[in-house]
Specification:
The structure holds 3 protein chains of 3 kinds.
Chain A lengths: L5 H12 L11 H33 L15 H29 L7 E8 L2 E5 L5 E3 L1 E5 L4 E7 L4 E5 L4 E5 L5 E5 L5 E7 L12 E6 L1 H10 L6 H11 L24 E3 L5 E3 L2 H9 L22 H12 L5 H6 L33
Parallel strand pairs in A: 1-5, 4-10
Antiparallel strand pairs in A: 1-2, 2-3, 5-8, 6-7, 6-9, 9-10, 11-12
Chain B lengths: L10 H4 L15 H36 L1 H9 L3 H26 L3 H31 L11 H4 L5 H5 L7 H5 L1 H34 L9 H26 L5
Helix pairs in contact in B: 2-9, 2-10, 4-5, 4-10, 5-9, 9-10
Chain C lengths: L27 H5 L4 H29 L10 H20 L2 H14 L8 H23 L13 H5 L4 H28 L12 H32 L13 H35 L6 H15 L14 H28 L9 H24 L1 H7 L3 H31 L5 H28 L13 H31 L39 H15 L1
Helix pairs in contact in C: 2-3, 2-4, 2-5, 2-16, 3-5, 4-7, 4-9, 4-14, 5-7, 7-8, 8-9, 8-10, 9-10, 9-12, 9-14, 10-11, 11-12, 12-14, 12-15, 14-15, 15-16
Classes of the chains: A alpha+beta, B mainly alpha, C mainly alpha.
């Protein structure tokens, strides 16, 4: 062995002991996707073996020494039909199976906890509903469906968690979503997989999966004092949104309580589902989304509110159906379904640091 | 279209015939040569359709999204100027077709006249286009160059918008007029580029035709150029209604 | 019984024919102003080989950088420029023109019995356009490079980088027109220039494959051209068609770009498939199994190929239902490739097979293309695409199809037609060695990347987590071997120009019309225009011809 370089030797040993063919399965969807993946690997291996076997055996049987004169054959409709239909059938099975998984990955369940992610060159900014901010990291609990709402404030990025088998592009100008449910606590890779400029390969981070108890502790220890919705409320006030969007009978704008998730009639005819994407559009491009019965007087906030600000506003409007004041005083861990909603003693909402938070500095 | 006319006129008899001087060495017959070059021209026009197709797709999508902005944007265009340009182009297509006919019937002076008329009409089109463009520059309607929203936010200050009876637009929709003008300049600009190339070739052809080319029985070049000119014309026939006319009275 | 089909003339008396397309005229100008499709093919061959090695050197730099997890050989922005230039050079200056512009240019007219392509001047023009594009790319490299990736994703390319996007865009635009004119020329030639008796179903499958690829070139490339024009306008004067802050939609650029760039992979692979049909028939002395099926599968790939572009955008937020449709269509486009593979395999059945270099490359193609094609199904399946896209799995799949498939086919074709193009044989033993070295090096380079991709390693990363290192080391080691495999042919093929054995008209005893004339051919290809009175790949006809010759001489 002396002539093998020790460095290479170390590598080989390291590799042989840590050899992996696929990343850890740390989400509910991962085993399902791996099942399809290995089915396809199996089919591919069989297909490849058939081709190799045929080529090798024909080469052995019909090489020039053994078989000096070729027999001319036109073709065979039956054989050709066979190798048209069998691959087609297998491909269709994969198509259906894959489509089922695809729809599962991109159709979040109703009880999913929503976390916002903003991509920018070259970092991921995560906004938890409880107001916790993270950069290039995402802490989540096991056993809870998590929906990510992604947006980019500059170029295309892509939020990829190989251990969960999910990936979604963050696109400038529109929300995209993806959901997953982590199963195994641990720390996993987060990559940006869409090429986004110079520091693309450094736009990575950690996905930290915690048990629900640990997650609760983490939430409590990293709270910024105000929940995302509270930030939104401040922004709502400082932008004077309430001047029109109030519950007075002569209000110039529709009241926003309970608006989230409802079907709104539009003045241009038709209805629209008020989801995150709609709320964002209605803030930035209001004249295209006038609710029936109201004049098109709302100004656009494009250029005045940052993507984080829009997220805070959206989160605020989303929560307007519940008794918001009560929520303000309770701890944000309440957002977890299994939480008892008990606030740690002495936890007070922090003094607003400045109503301009979330606004674009001009 | 008949495939491979060489089957009919085999190699054997082509050796017997005297070749006309303009027959290229690799064609068996003149018919094959004309057929091939014509077919090539049609294929080239097909690629041109795909080229403009990308722009038309973009137009369709954004028109659907930003309909009010497209309406207000089209009010800024002058129908008399656009209509005059349409007239010029259609006339130039007629003179071009006459030119091809003159070449086929070997009328040298007629050919030169027709080509010159086409040349002048083409220049006229570009001249009017220049007037239209300079109007846009004055009003700061060129996207990316200090683009101004004034005509859309305050239509009373703008005669064209006032005449069309525009109401003041919301800022967010007014901003999308920039997309309209982006497409306006991209589409008419690409069209004008094709016109400029065409006019350049026309100049060259007039020069050659005066020296007696194209009226010796070999008219493929004139014919194929005619196809190109008509194609550029047809693109305008689509651009004019899309950008100037439709949705004007909303 | 010998184990080769090569029949060479008596080397003591054989001479290269005095008049041929190479010797007809002399001087640099006679080459630069030529209208002869064969000379233009040679011009292309020289230029694309140069660009291949430029792109190859860049690939070498990429592999060297990835030897270690840190970005230590070069800074990340340098790395980004290197992989961008690698992509641009290899795709637009090598893969797209590789087989069509060299072998297609040289042999399509000869195979259908024409004296030249229909439009010789346009053919020369497309070489000049190609060179202008190439020089612009070289200018870009010298003046600081570009780092958008070869996909020019907006808004990155329009607003967020300050490198030479414009000169690269112009290069791709100009090279695109070169490709349009080549495709147009082929279509016209195939329609209008066929010799008497050369019906559509007597054409060699090489011609069918080029016909299909030409349709894609002619219809797809203009859409790329307009997308690039819009990017350039957006970058220079700031129009807002793709700019989300002005109301434009960056996804529209993705649609327009992939509307060309997906068919473009079929532009690249179809001509390679054409080469394989020729070699596999010649070296097994048999008509291609199911000629019609293979011919129509080329056309089917061209037609379906236009309707699958959005499978590059499955995770980009297009609607779930359009994902469904594009995934289904992707499955359909995979079937014709499977048909081809099996038809080629059964061409061997009851043949009389020999294993000269082109055949070794052909076997390499079949194995690697099968892997490349099947892994394509992993990516076309919407569910697994979520996990595998944008990782090294994509890189591996693409290189299996393009390098394992297309480049193997290109080398098979170059060796196969070398005697016809130059009049001399290449040295057999060393070229067989090169084929084997290439195959081994290729697998070592790219197979580990499938595993890397499955493990989640993203592509276009200058640095990566350390646990991926060992597989990257394998890959880099393989790339070294691969480099040797590609250098060898350049050396021995150059050597053979002077010292190779005189090949004679038809060393392989092949049936194509191109083999029935002298090598190297005359400028006008044939002494008298051939009349096609038999099917393609009719080896009995060839036997009868030989008997006739013997009878007339005797």
């Amino acid at each position: 062995m002396s002539h093998i370089s020790p460095t290479i030797w170390q590598f080989l040993v390291k590799w042989m002991t840590n050899f992996a063919l696929y990343p850890p399965e740390a989400s509910k969807i991962a085993p399902q996707m791996d099942a399809l993946y290995f089915f396809m690997v199996l089919v591919s291996l069989i297909g490849l073996t058939i081709v190799i076997l045929l080529v090798t055996s024909f080469s052995l049987l019909y090489n020039k020494k053994r078989h000096p004169v070729a027999v001319q054959i036109e073709g065979s409709t039956l054989l050709e039909a066979t190798w048209t239909i069998i691959p087609l059938g297998l491909f269709l099975v994969m198509f259906v199976w894959g489509a089922l998984i695809y729809f599962r990955v991109f159709t979040p369940p109703a009880n999913a906890m929503n976390i916002y992610v903003v991509g920018k060159q070259w970092m991921w900014k995560v906004e938890h509903p409880g107001g916790q901010h993270e950069i290039n990291a995402l802490h989540i609990p096991t056993g809870q469906p998590i929906q990510l709402t992604l947006i980019s404030q500059d170029v295309f990025h892509s939020f990829s968690i190989p251990a969960f088998r999910v990936k979604r592009e963050a696109i400038p100008g529109r929300y995209t979503t993806v959901w997953f449910e982590a199963t195994t606590p641990g720390t996993y890779h987060l990559f940006c997989t869409q090429y986004c400029g110079t520091e693309h390969s450094h736009m990575t981070g950690d996905i930290v999966v915690l048990t629900p108890e640990d997650f609760k502790k983490w939430l409590a220890s990293s709270t910024s004092g105000a929940s995302l919705a509270q930030n939104g409320e401040r922004l709502f006030a400082s932008l004077s949104c309430a001047a029109c969007h109030n519950t007075r009978p002569d209000a110039r704008g529709p009241s926003l309580a309970s608006v989230y998730g409802s079907k709104l009639p539009l003045s241009s005819g038709g209805t629209v589902l008020a989801d995150d994407a709609y709320l964002r559009e209605a803030i930035l491009n209001p004249s295209q989304h006038i609710t029936q019965g109201y004049a098109p007087i709302m100004p656009t906030y494009q250029g005045q509110v940052s993507e984080e600000g829009v997220i805070a506003l959206v989160e605020y409007i989303k929560n307007l159906d519940s008794d918001y004041r009560v929520q303000q005083t309770t701890n944000t861990t309440e957002l977890l379904p299994e939480s008892e909603g008990k606030a740690p003693a002495g936890q007070k909402p922090a003094v607003p640091k400045g109503a301009g938070q979330g606004m674009v500095k001009q | 279209m008949s495939d491979s006319p060489a089957i009919a006129h085999g190699a054997a008899d082509s050796a017997v015939h005297e070749h006309p001087p303009y027959q290229r060495h690799h064609f068996a017959t003149m018919a094959q040569q004309n057929d091939a070059t014509n077919f090539a021209m049609w294929l080239f026009l097909l690629t041109e359709i795909m080229f403009f197709g990308g722009l038309f797709t973009a137009y369709l999508i954004y028109r659907n999204w930003y309909y009010p902005a497209f309406v207000a944007g089209s009010h800024q265009l002058s129908i008399p100027l656009g209509g005059l340009n349409t007239l010029l182009l259609i006339t130039s297509s007629f003179t071009m077709a006459m030119g091809v006919w003159c070449a086929e019937t070997r009328r040298k002076s007629g050919l030169v006249l027709c080509l010159t008329l086409t040349f002048i009409l083409g220049l006229g089109f570009l001249g009017i286009k220049t007037i239209e463009y300079s109007e846009k520059i004055e009003k700061h309607h060129v996207p990316g160059f200090h683009y101004s929203l004034q005509s859309f936010l305050d239509p009373a200050s703008d005669p064209a918008a006032k005449a069309a009876g525009d109401k003041p637009m919301a800022l967010d929709m007014a901003r999308h007029t920039e997309v309209y003008f982006s497409l306006y300049f991209a589409m008419t600009g690409m069209h004008a580029l094709h016109m400029i190339i065409g006019i350049g070739i026309l100049g060259f052809m007039i020069f050659r035709a005066r020296a007696g080319a194209y009226t010796t029985g070999h008219v493929t070049f004139v014919e194929n150029f005619g196809l190109y000119w008509h194609f550029v014309d047809i693109i305008w026939i689509f651009l004019f209604p899309l950008l100037y006319l439709i949705s004007r009275h909303q | 019984m010998s184990d080769t089909i090569v029949v060479l003339p008596d080397q003591r008396t054989a001479r290269i024919p005095k008049t041929n397309y190479l010797t007809k005229e002399n001087g640099l100008l006679s080459w630069l102003l030529t209208g002869d499709h064969k000379r233009i093919a040679i011009l292309y061959l020289i230029s694309i080989t140069c660009f291949f090695f430029v792109g190859g050197a860049l690939a070498g730099l990429i592999r060297l950088e990835l030897l270690t997890p840190q970005s230590d050989l070069m800074a990340t922005d340098t790395y980004n420029k290197v992989f961008t230039m690698h992509g641009v050079v290899m795709i637009f200056l090598f893969l797209v023109p590789s087989v069509p512009a060299t072998l297609g240019n040289f042999f399509i007219p000869m195979m259908i019995g024409a004296k030249d392509l229909a439009l010789p001047k346009v053919n020369l023009l497309s070489w000049y356009l190609y060179m202008v594009g190439g020089i612009l790319v070289l200018y870009t490299m010298v003046s600081g490079g570009v780092d958008t990736g070869w996909t020019f994703t907006t808004p990155l390319s329009t607003h967020y980088v300050n490198t030479n996007v414009l000169s690269t865009g112009l290069a791709v635009f100009v090279a695109g027109f070169s490709s349009i004119f080549t495709g147009l020329n082929f279509i016209v030639t195939i329609h209008k220039m066929r010799a008497p008796g050369m019906t559509w179903f007597r054409m060699p499958l090489f011609v069918w494959a080029h016909y299909a690829a030409s349709i894609l070139m002619v219809l797809g490339t203009p859409v790329l051209a307009i997308a690039i024009v819009l990017v350039a306008l957006e970058r220079t004067i700031g129009i807002g068609v793709f700019d989300p802050t002005k109301g434009g939609d960056p996804l529209l650029f993705q649609h327009l770009f992939w509307f060309y760039s997906h068919p473009a992979v079929y532009i690249m692979i179809l001509p390679g498939m054409g080469v394989i049909s020729e070699t596999i028939s010649t070296f097994s002395r048999k008509r291609v199994f199911g000629y019609t099926a293979v011919a129509f599968s080329s056309v089917a790939i061209a037609v379906f190929g236009f309707f699958v572009w959005a499978h590059h955008m499955f995770i980009m937020g297009i609607s779930n239902y359009s994902v469904l449709i594009f995934s289904l269509l992707t499955m359909l486009v995979a079937v014709p490739s499977a048909i081809k593979i099996f038809n080629w395999t059964f061409t061997l059945y009851k043949g009389s097979i020999t294993f000269e270099t082109p055949m070794l490359y052909t076997f390499g193609f079949m194995g690697l293309f099968t892997i490349g094609g099947l892994t394509g199904v992993f990516l076309g399946t919407s569910g697994t695409d979520i996990h595998l896209t944008e990782t090294y799995f994509i890189v591996a799949h693409f290189h299996f199809v393009m390098v394992g498939g297309m480049l193997m086919a290109f080398l098979a074709g170059i060796h196969f037609w070398w005697p016809k193009m130059t009049g001399r044989m290449y040295p057999e033993k060393i070229s067989q060695l090169a084929a084997v070295v290439t195959f081994i090096g290729f697998n070592l380079t790219f197979f580990p990347q499938f595993i890397l991709g499955t493990l989640g390693m993203p592509r276009r990363y200058a640095s990566y987590p350390p646990e991926f290192q060992i597989l990257n080391v394998f890959s880099t080691a393989g790339a070294t071997i691969l480099g040797v495999g590609y250098l060898l042919p350049v050396l021995y093929l150059t050597w053979s120009l002077k010292y190779g054995a005189i090949a004679g008209n038809n060393p392989w005893q092949a049936t194509g019309l191109e083999w029935q004339t002298q090598s190297p051919p005359l400028t006008e290809n044939f002494v008298e225009l051939p009349i096609m009175d038999h099917e393609a790949y009719d080896y009995d006809w060839l036997e009868r011809q030989k008997e006739k010759e013997v009878a007339s001489v005797g």
